[in-house]
Design goal:
Distance between the termini: 75 Å
Number of helices: 7
Largest sheet: none
Order of helices and strands: HHHHHHH
Number of domains: 1
Shape: globular
Number of strands: 0
Length: about 140
C-alpha cells in the first residue's frame, strides 16, 4: 500500500476530523521544521526526536515570529484554541503515517501547555509599569 502524500493525508484527515483547517496542518509541519532547526541535534545519526513539550515551545516561538500580534486570531481561525488542539493536529498526522512517534509520545503531552492569551496576546500588551509610570509622571508635572 502506497503511503499518501501530505496533501492526500490532509484530505483524508479533514473528512474524518473537520475541526482544523488545511492551514493548521501546513503550519504544524512548518513549526516542526522550525523546531528541528532550532533544537540541538545529536552529533551522529539523522536528527533527533522532538517531544510534545519541545514542539509546544517551538510552535509558540514560530507563531509569534510569523504572525505577531494577530497570532491568537490566526490560530483560532484555523480551529486551534488550545495546546490540546496542537496535539490533535499532530496525532492526526501520526495516525496517517505523516509524522512518527516514539512509544512514550502521547496526546496528553500537549495538555495544558500554556494559556493562549498569555502566550499570544500578552507579549503585545503594553507593560503595566510603563503605563503606571506615564500616568504618575503626567500627574506630578515631571
Amino acid at each position: 500500500m502506497k503511503k499518501p502524500s501530505f496533501q492526500e493525508a490532509i484530505e483524508q484527515i479533514r473528512r474524518e476530523d473537520p475541526r482544523y483547517t488545511v492551514e493548521a496542518y501546513d503550519f504544524i509541519r512548518e513549526a516542526l521544521d522550525y523546531a528541528m532547526k532550532h533544537l540541538e541535534r545529536p552529533r551522529k545519526g539523522h536528527g533527533r526526536h522532538v517531544t510534545g513539550q519541545e514542539l509546544l515551545v517551538s510552535i509558540r516561538e514560530f507563531t509569534l515570529r510569523e504572525f505577531g500580534p494577530i497570532s491568537k486570531r490566526v490560530l483560532n481561525h484555523w480551529g486551534i484554541h488550545s495546546t490540546e488542539d496542537f496535539g490533535h493536529v499532530v496525532f492526526n498526522l501520526v495516525d496517517k503515517g505523516i509524522l512518527g512517534k516514539t512509544e512514550g509520545d502521547r496526546i496528553e503531552d500537549f495538555a495544558d501547555g500554556y494559556d493562549f492569551a498569555d502566550a499570544f496576546v500578552k507579549p503585545f500588551l503594553p507593560d503595566d509599569s510603563s503605563v503606571t509610570k506615564q500616568t504618575t509622571t503626567k500627574g506630578t508635572g515631571k
